[in-house]
Amino acid sequence: MNSFSTRIALAIVGCGIAGGAEAQIARKDLSIDTALVIATTAMADCKAKGFAVSVAVVGRNGELLVHLRGDNTGPHTMENSFKKAFTSRTFRIPSGEMEDRLKKNPAMGAQYLTGFTTGRGALPIKIGEDTVGAAGVSGAPGGDKDEDCVKVGISKVADQLK
To answer: How far apart are CA 95 and CA 55, in angstroms?
Structure first.
């Protein structure tokens, strides 16, 4: 086989491999519309309970999709809601579970990461077993109350997370 024929054959094989790989890369991501419904629903739930909160929703890579600051919230709630959501997304667990992990391993390197928190109040957003984002709330008197509002927000779009 001459050099030209060899190159043609390799190009054909390469296209076949690339074509097969494309089919394996398909994935679902959290849309801005879904993220907005989660955020506004979580905020409305907290507000109905008398809590002034901020809400952050992050996407698959921990990138901020929606960030809402509620009326009469403290200045720290914006940063804290993001940190909770970011921690939940990057570790694929409720943010409050990081406290238990840190107690079990006080030398855990993750505690030194930018955007990390052990504060409760964020939950991962999943499609099946794939974590596509997270939502975090800050401002209610206790992380359990923040987390409850997140649950309401995520449950509002549960039919879209399939």
So the answer is: 14
| Alpha carbons 139 and 56: distance in angstroms, whole number | 12
| Reported confidence tier of residue 147, pLDDT bands at 50, 70, 90 | very high
Taking the CB of residue 42, how many other CB atoms lie within 10 A of it? 31
Q: Which CATH superfamily is domain 32-160 in?
A: Haem-degrading domain (3.30.450.150)
Give 29-81 pLDDT, tens digit per residue. 999 999 999 999 999 999 999 999 999 999 999 999 999 999 999 999 999 99
Contact criterion met (CB below 8 Å) for 39 and 135: yes
Question: What's the length of the chain?
Answer: 162
Residue found under tokens 């995520």: 154
Cα 26 to Cα 16, 22, 86: the distances in Å are 17, 7, 23
Q: Which residue has the tokens 């994935």?
A: 27
pTM: 0.83
